Amino acid sequence: MPHMIIEYTNNLADDIQIDDLLKKVNKILMAHPAIFPIGGIRSRAIEITHYCIADGSEDDAFVHATLKIGAGRTEDNKKMVCDQLFSMMETHLAPLFSKRYVALSMELYEFNESGTYKKNNIHQRFKSQA
Questions:
Q1: pTM for this one?
Q2: Of the residues 29, 51, 64, 129, which has the fewest C-beta atoms closer than 10 A?
Q3: Is residue 37 classed as helix, strand or coil in its secondary structure?
Q4: What amino acid positions are annotated as catalytic residues?
């Protein structure tokens, strides 16, 4: 962990620059290796093709991000990282906000360690580089 999942409406596909956005997410998360081990970072996007926004009368759009993390981070650390991520997304999406109606949201989901299952040998690569 952490995993960032960005859902966005397909009417943004040509303008959102999603690969660039995902790289920016990872850059922020990797800047905090004491909070998030680099080998556990995952960012992905899901283009939504079926949706209805507000009254459905306009070509409205949305971007919703979910940051999923394991338990154990301080409230200050969680707020700091979420503030950085949301600010970056606001900046990245500013050109879209200037030309269309868009809703941007983000939520933090913190897993309880019981009930989560993980196997990851990517961590070994980063431990050997240290």
A1: 0.90
A2: 129
A3: coil
A4: 2
